[in-house]
User: Fold this.
Amino acid sequence: MQQPVRRKKQAITLRVNGVERDGLVEPRRLLCDFIREDLGLTGTHVGCEHGICGACTVLVNGAAVRSCLLFAIQADGCEIMTVEGLARGGELHPLQEAFWENHGLQCGFCTPGVLMAAYEFLRDNPNPTEREVRENAAGNLCRCTGYHGIIQSVLAAAEKLRAEREGQPSAAS
Amino acid sequence: MKPAAFEYFAPTSTAEAVRLLGEYADDAKILAGGQSLVPLMNMRLAKPAVLIDVNPVAELDYIRLDDGHLAVGAITRQRALERAAEVAARVPLIRETLLLLGHAQIRNRGTIGGNVAHADPASELPATLVALGGELKLAGPSGERIVRPEDFYLTFLTTTLEPAEMLVETRFRLPQGRHGGAFEEISRRHGDYAIVGVGVQLELADDGSIARAGIGMCGAGATPIKATEAEDLLRGQRPSEALFAEAAVKASEQADPEADIHATADYRRDMVRVLTARGLRKALARANG
Assistant:
């Protein structure tokens, strides 16, 4: 039986926040580490490294995933969105505005993951109940806020995004 | 907290995946959703020399109604099954179960096959598979074979899959006639593995009696457990509180839980009783409603 060849690097190409990026990585390189160290996008945080805390959440082909549980080679050819991709040409995304206005963060360590999870959640569920927002928030661990500010921020962001869709200024802004 | 190095293959067909499994056998692990395996690798509790990434095996990504079953390809994402119209229409118990499974991010990558084959005794979906009834299709060097869930699960994290075999399809039996299901679980936080969970599926005859009852438990033993004695008790009977209470006791007697940091064995056994009764009540209301 052939001995496995474990460290041979592979070339990968992915679109990150709309920009084509490439890399040369060992198969075991985690996506979160590739994003942070190879691409220099340190907005994505590494908390537990075993899929519990959600600080590493990014979107891969439009789906929120834990980037510490994906190998970078698995993302070859994929569209990635990180927290750096939220702002629109220097303007804060309504989610980011809402978190600012509603004290959705304290130390900020969990926040990128919370934002990316909320981004997907509000995209698919634009008019959520508070209960639904709470259930979604359970996928990210926050040690600072006690979640109250996070819940208020996501609800406020939902309102801003709905208003945006309808072309009205929002009461939450 | 970084994984040990491994050789990586990404087959694009089941045949190729099986061939690779045969070639590397005990040195290889299949990578599906990675939501259970990669945490173990990151903590170096698992150090496979070879990883066979089956995510590119597109032919294993499907949801079909087939011969009285919901047939789900192994690579199908949990999210896809959660959102499938056929599931909402024909077997909503599966959707209810999946919504208890981790969080959105986990279900976006996690696969049905991976969850079923990982055989974590606290995992909800195998309990629902056992409650509904069904079959598992395995593929290996000598071809495909069908296994019943009760013959598939051996003990903690262990199934009857041979080293060179992989699960390719999970077949959930579709409930017939007037039916209702419920999944009741206890966990410390929403999205955690169940401390104890019970999946119930009732099918009623035209006269309102119970044509078929399916009860599956998780967190109550080394494998998902089918509460066969409770099911036998319920079959053919008119539903009633007293009947459900008796069935719940029978179910708890078939539980074989361990004590751990989360709960004592006695607590788990008692919760099987409580959750079975609740599940039966809810399932009946849904069958009638």
